[in-house]
Amino acid sequence: MSAAPQTLALRHDGPVLHVTLQRPEVRNAMSLAMVLDLRQALAAAEADGRTRVLVLRGAGGHFCAGGDLKDMAAARAQLDADPQAIAKVSAAFGELCVAYAGTGLATVAVLEGTVMGGGFGLACVADVALAGTSAVFRLPETSLGVVPAQIAPFLVERLGYAEARRLAVTGGKLDADAALQLRLVHAVHASGALDNALAAVLHDILQCAPGAVAASKALIAKARFHSAASMVQEAAEVFSRAVLGPEGIEGTTAFLAKRKAGWVPGAGA
């Protein structure tokens, strides 16, 4: 694959990387090429030393229509030569979700139109999910005789066990307001107001220190599976490192001096 992504449009705006799924003719269905492009875009952002936030959205009024059935058909045709062909395609998407869920960068998903299958899963792994009123969320796998396999852990994490199970067994369909009630998304805005809502979220994120954001995300992720009592010492060590580190020193100094911290855009520090 060439260095330039074939299925995405990438745009940097200072510390924010805007990643747009760019297959509008198929409502941005996720091909294996798109999976690989998304992995590459994330890895490059994590390594470039300037990106602090990654924004995911789709071109043409839709977020993502799920997996590309053409890729699945191609994998099925390879089964004689490689019995694991379909499993490999599935695993590649699962690894994508794990990578985006585990990144230390802040992630924001802007969701419009079709948000289906794998697109539903990407919505679940974003730190902040903003929906337009046009968004329709579908989990159609069981109605097609298949399983929402790779996104299942993220459905449970975002929605809870009972709601994830309900949506799976009913081939769930949600409008934006229903998605907000379930906390699948964090806010719903008219389509014309989405860009302003995104700008407000990005402003809030960029007030926060990037290292502290990454450390907080890692600690919160671990807290899902461990008791509070078992994490007291680790949390104390994480806090101590933060307080004594350059961000902690700069943040507290800036607060006492009533100025913006150096990581805030336009702070001039």
**N-end to C-end Cα span:** 40 Å
Sequence of secondary-structure elements = EEHEHHEEHEEHHEHEHHHH
Q: How many H/I helices? A: 11
Please provide the count of β strands. Answer: 9
Low-confidence stretches: none
Whole-number mean pLDDT: 94
Count of separate structural domains: 2
> Using only CA atoms, what is the Rg?
20 Å
Query: What share of the residues does DSSP label as strand, in percent?
Result: 15-25%
Query: What's the level 1 CATH class of the largest domain?
Result: Alpha Beta
CATH topology of the largest domain: 2-enoyl-CoA Hydratase, Chain A, domain 1
Largest sheet: 6 strands, mixed
Overview of the molecule:
This protein is of the alpha/beta class and 269 residues long. The protein folds into two domains: 198 residues, 2-enoyl-CoA Hydratase, Chain A, domain 1, CATH 3.90.226; 49 residues. The chain has eleven helices and nine strands. Strands 1-2-3-4-6-9 form a six-stranded mixed sheet, sandwiched between helices. Strands 5-7-8 form a three-stranded mixed sheet. α1 runs parallel beside α3, α3 runs parallel beside α4 and α5 crosses α6. The longest helix has 18 residues. The radius of gyration is 20 Å and the shape is globular. The mean pLDDT is 94.
Descriptive key words:
alpha/beta, 2-enoyl-CoA Hydratase, Chain A, domain 1, 2 domains, 11 helices, 9 strands, globular
